[in-house]
Amino acid sequence: MEYPSKLIEEAVTQIARLPGIGKKTALRLVLHLIREKEENTFRLTEALNRLRSGIRYCRQCHNISDAEVCTICSSGRRDRSIICVVENTNDVMAIENTAQYTGLYHVLGGVISPMNGIGPTDLKIEALISRVNEAQSEVKELILALSPTMEGDTTSFYIHRRLKELPIKVSVIARGIPVGGDLEYADEITLGRSILGRTLFN
Amino acid sequence: MEYPSKLIEEAVTQIARLPGIGKKTALRLVLHLIREKEENTFRLTEALNRLRSGIRYCRQCHNISDAEVCTICSSGRRDRSIICVVENTNDVMAIENTAQYTGLYHVLGGVISPMNGIGPTDLKIEALISRVNEAQSEVKELILALSPTMEGDTTSFYIHRRLKELPIKVSVIARGIPVGGDLEYADEITLGRSILGRTLFN
Prior knowledge:
The structure is a homodimer.
Chain A: H1 6-16, H2 23-35, H3 38-54, E1 56-57, E2 64-65, H4 71-74, E3 79-86, H5 89-98, E4 103-107, H6 125-134, E5 141-144, H7 150-162, E6 169-172, H8 188-196, E7 199-200
Helix pairs in contact in A: 1-2, 5-8
């Protein structure tokens, strides 16, 4: 498609790089922005710039956070004896939405995936080990809530092996979630049940 | 939904203001941007800022353009005796894609819509009248290619009435397009035929 302006072409190209947005949708968004007031576009771009340069991570659970320690880690009402290990912030939000879990979290920032060149050292696994080691008397259980894919299973297995000597329970969430699916798309009931029905890591 | 960071919440709010994007999609985009390299976000926001502050319109047809006169208006290969009147840039691009039209354009920037407080003076109708008046010997025909809605028909009727005294043909594109539909969603064959099969504005 030929665009009437290089500025439009460039904006379309940049927007179409986002996941799930094609060139046609990108063009619609661009023309919408042009029709709207200038300040709306600037508000959008400012929010994105601030987001990208100002984003911080909780020192303890590595979830996205505004403070040095996130609201969940610093809350007095959470059960500090359980840590739920997840891949991403999306997963923390999805589990929080089920209102079935009151423990803490640990965000790995991904899963082990040799295909994509992601090894254990690229994730917050070492941080998890030392966190559990330091709070050994406090932490009773670790729930592995990773996506039931090859990579997720590999990561669960790796973490379980690394923690074998420690006297804590390691469980995985129940496989109520369709195998091969993505945690963030599961409905709240299925996801909530999978937390309640977790089984011991053999 | 509760967000782990105010920065995320603000970015989601701003993205979800765009048409066709909900909060869930906005969150996915935001988390995607966070995972990616910082420079990708900055490239996106820079393209949008440049777009919004640098956009210019063709002096003659009022389409979006990089130069003072757009590539279509300044081309030596276009038929200067026909002007196609459209609502938006989208429509110009859609008609150009059919490769059925070799004349010039005139972009109104909308249609008359009393419901939304848009009257003839809010559009480039006066500019169209003087353009046709100035080039009376050159312009033989005006094609009204507005969406076949109440507002589009009103606008076509208004323009036709304003040009009644001038010795030029005024035609409308054939109603091959479903009534109530939007011009930019029509397929290329239907849209191309509607240009070829245009009828005289009775």
